[in-house]
Amino acid sequence: MGLSFRHRMIRVVLVALVLPGYCLGCSGGTIEETLFAGEAQGTTYSIKVAAGGLSKEQKHELEAAIRRRFDEIDRAMSLYREDSELAAFNRQQTTEPIRVCREFIEVFQAARAVSEASDGALDVTVAPLVSAWGFGPAKRKDPLPPSDVEITELLQRVGFRGIEIDASAGTIRKTRSDLECDVNGIAQGYTVDKLAEDLQLLGYSNYLVEVGGEVRARGRNARGTCWQVAIEKPIAEGGEYQKVLSLDSLSLTTAGDYRNYIEQNGVRLSHSIDPRTGRPISHSLASVSVIHADCAMADGYDTALMVLGPEKGYELAVKKGLAALFIIHGAEGYEVKATPAFDSIAGRHLP
User: Fold this and answer.
1) 3-state SS of the chain?
2) What's the confidence (pLDDT) of residue 18?
3) Which residues, 6 or more positions from 331, have their beta carbon under 8 angstroms from its beta carbon?
4) pLDDT reading at 4 higher than 70
5) Banded model confidence at residue 211, pLDDT cuts 50, 70, 90
6) Beta bridge partners of 157
7) Is the pLDDT of residue 292 over 80?
8) Considering just the CA atoms, what is the radius of gyration of the chain in Å?
9) Which long-range contacts does 320-326 make (Cβ < 8 Å, 24+ apart)?
10) What's the pLDDT tens digit per position in 14-44?
11) What pLDDT, on a 0 to 100 scale, did the predictor assign at position 15?
């Protein structure tokens, strides 16, 4: 089936949507847009490359590179296949260093940076709590919600500082043998970054990469103008846009809490688990979008800000100079709050 990070689609909703007509204006010439689309990581992907007419061989080369990248990350970090490095890492009851691939190290390093900045609002060791609340690959057999005693016990196994990274040696070490990790809060953005990197290495500099709603854009489309991306309004049926942005050498990701949840005894349980409390978030933040140069960092920060909520999340975003848009449940509908950095980017009218 593939990676299925977005069974963390239990986490990320398809908020950042690629608009069907990208930008205004037309430069003419022989530039064409070639679309590569399909399913991967439990969701869909759409990659557009703007270049001179691609030959059949070039298209096959790109298709092979895209599939190879998905497969590599799938083998490294999927919780939905037992032979992945992450699944093996979670099973190993040891505190000895474990050698892992470069992608594994890079994702854990990026997650660690966001964890430190957000005081643990993003935490890769949240996996036991995700499972306890009925999310993740394993189906919970016990009734929901988990008891206070169970949550207290599981919290002893959660804490991002319990994972030690030695990048030079290419190893990861648990300080507790029973730690288990879930990288769904950042890995899909990382996938987008690596796909963009692959396109660059193949000589393409005008592209739009989208995986499960996480987007990275560079250069111009076939019309010679910037790629445009929309942030969707946080409504279950979708199809309405809150904001349209022109992006160049930037990524946009969104975390939301309005499509993926469980109802228990009439109570909606969010799939976004606060790793500090062990419980689903219960504040008024409907969605948060982040613009960043790196899609992995945008993805990690949107997770952390979603957990922190509309007040503390906004404070952190401003403190860190993040370009973030918060959509909040209000008494009379949605309230929208943007950081100064977001307003600065949104105010640009790139050609």
Assistant:
1) CCCCHHHHCCCCCCCEEECCCCCCCCCCCCEEEEEEEEEECCEEEEEEEEEECCCHHHHHHHHHHHHHHHHHHHHHHCCCCCCCHHHHHHHCCCCCCEECCHHHHHHHHHHHHHHHHHCCCCCHHHHHHHHHCCCCCCCCCCCCCCCHHHHHHHHCCCCHHHEEEECCCCEEEECCCCCCCCCCCCHHHHHHHHHHHHHHHCCCCCEEEEECCEEEEECECCCCCEEEEEEECCCCCCCCEEEEEEECCEEEEEEECCCCEEEECCEEEECCEECCCCEECCCCEEEEEEEECCHHHHHHHHHHHHHHHHHHHHHHHHHCCCEEEEEEEECCEEEEEECHHHHHHHCCCCC
2) 47
3) none
4) no
5) very high
6) none
7) yes
8) 20
9) 320/117, 322/290, 322/292, 323/290, 323/291, 323/292, 324/288, 324/289, 324/290, 324/291, 325/231, 325/242, 325/243, 325/288, 325/289, 326/285, 326/287, 326/288
10) 333 444 433 333 344 578 999 999 999 888 9
11) 34
Q: What is the pTM of this model?
A: 0.90
Q: Which of 251 and 244 is assigned the larger pLDDT?
A: 251
Would strands 207-211 and 43-52 be described as parallel, antiparallel, or unpaired?
antiparallel
- Taking 60 as the threshold, does the pLDDT of residue 217 lie above it? yes
Residue 173 token pair = 């070490």
Contacts of 235 (CB under 8 A, 6+ apart): 258
Cβ distance 189 to 214 under 8 Å?
yes
Residue 286, C-beta contacts closer than 8 angstroms, at least 6 positions apart: 234, 256, 257, 258, 327, 328, 329, 334
Is the bond into 128 cis (omega within 30 degrees of 0)?
no
| Tokens matching residue 135 | 């999310």
| pLDDT at residue 8 tops 90 | no
CA angle 283, 286, 289 (to 5 degrees): 120
